[in-house]
Amino acid sequence: MEPAKPQTLRCAIYTRKSSEEGLEQNFNSLHAQREACEAFIKSQAEEGWRLIKTHYNDGGLSGGNMERPALQSLLEDIRKKLVDVVVVYKVDRLTRSLSDFARMVEVFDAHGVSFVAVTQQFNTTSMGRLTLNVLFSFAQFEREVTGERIRDKIAASKRRGMWMGGLVPLGYEVHERQLVIQPSEAETVRQIFQRYCELGSVRLLKSDLDQAGVRSKVRVAQNGNKSGDESFSRGALYTLLANPIYIGEVRHKGRRHPGLHEAIIERAVWDKTDELLHAHAARARGKGTKSISSLLAGELFDESGRPLTPSHAVKGKRRYRYYVSRALLSSTVGGSEGGWRIPAAEIERSVAAATRSILEDRTGIAMELDRPEWNANQTKSILDAASSWSNRLRSEAESGRGARTSRQSSGSMWRWNPNFYQVARRIT
After folding, report:
1. pLDDT for 88-116, tens place per residue?
2. What DSSP designation does 119 have?
3. Three-class SS state of 275
4. Taking the CA atoms of the chain, what radius of gyration do you get in angstroms?
5. Burial (Cβ within 10 Å: 0-12, 13-18, ≥19) of residue 49
6. Mind listing the pLDDT tens digit for each residue in 298-312?
7. Per-residue DSSP letter, 160
8. pTM
9. Buried b / exposed e along 88-123 (16+ C-beta atoms within 10 A)
10. Residue 417, SS3?
11. How far apart are CA 168 and CA 180, in angstroms?
12. Percent of the chain beyond pLDDT 70?
């Protein structure tokens, strides 16, 4: 009698390398891991192990989290029941986080999947899990201690004025790991600061730079990909104008330290720029520009079907609100793109008056409620709610507060009586 053939177990190999260094080589760490795992699977062929064709390789990605494309693809295939055994070279290739490992094991258990590390002979039996938990605890501890050591080194270096890497600021280039001035870009930086001091507005500054053809820094990544050479966004201009790197300082966790690099901007220009930025920020926080809710935000559209966005303008101490087509908001000063700009108070008063007219039409509401799904109690509740809100809108209109009715108040109308919204929509 022939022995029963073992059940076929579909094996998936997962490989990972934390850095991109060496990945361009014909035979790199990922290939070595996969080769060892393939050999182990072949050694288990008599047990029914079979390698699946799909490759799950994450190159240049940390094991400290689960945001890895190949890992997510593997977990998705496990949920689709396409994998029976997950094979890795070492357990830290799968993850270096104990909490992430616990979540993965839950997925493995839920779909009957086994886990094997070929060089450490760990698996997901009860004893294997105990050993793995201890191992991952030490791995996570090592990762956290390493992170603390790196953060301490960065803090100490910045206190000494050293630039510690990252995106090279416009106006500088890196030479022997230090920032040195790039003359043509430095002139652009000076132009930006000078024009902001003259215009006093980032919006006007952006328009001015666009018209002058000023572009952002061109950056070339290690893989040869280029980025930059674009018009400045307002956010990028705010960041540039507030960067103390341009007065020869290095910032770390809200504190500034004298840097080892040369300044591009004179202190007087920086102080004036800083004063203007803080003045605008203070005005934005002050009572004179206190945020006023826009009742019809998200409800209005122009003739092209594009939504109208709440906007405002300030003249002196008065604030004028509008609903504006997005095309007008995104266009530069003097742009010819069409769109609508509607005074907010007028349209809100008109909508409030139309709403009040609908709410006062008790006959129309009663006719709409003459349906089998509405009982007498619901009908009375809705009519009472309509009367209450009609009186409130009339009172606010008479006191001049109608245009300032908040979205929160309107929302409470629907939350107070959820059937009211359905009826109001049918009537309109």
Report:
1. 998 888 887 777 877 888 888 889 998 88
2. T
3. helix
4. 33
5. buried
6. 788 887 777 888 888
7. T
8. 0.43
9. bbebbbbbbbbebbeebbeebeebebbbbbbebebe
10. coil
11. 10
12. 80
